[in-house]
Amino acid sequence: MLIGSYEHILDTKKRLSIPSKWRVVLGEKIIVTTGLDKSLFIFSSSKWETIAKEIAEKGFYSADSRNFARFILSNAFELSIDSHGRVLLPDSLVDFASLSQEVVLSGVYDRAEIWDKKEFTKVMQNVNKDAENTALRISTN
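Structure (tokenized):
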């Protein structure tokens, strides 16, 4: 299970350390792709297989299905975690999420997210402010 938030530094070579507790769950190879809300998503290889299959099963008849598949699948990279627990993030993903040197890795059960620290702080302020209303809205669905 991937939980908690960790602040890390994206080095000048765009390498990012993955928390050691998460490496046990994720394995040696991970999938990193464009995420929602201006973040990047991290999946284990096995979880990625499930996600990719679910997206593919939506079909190609709907423009929304095709576009979402392009967004998630064509921007995905299989990355190896090195002996120091780091991954090298591709420029396209760093640019997509507007990552600066200070980043936050956030665990969201079966995926992790990579955020620019300033953006994460701003998003979480809004999330925290509206948590009770959000809980009420999703409990009635």
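The mean pLDDT is 96. The chain has one domain: 2-139.
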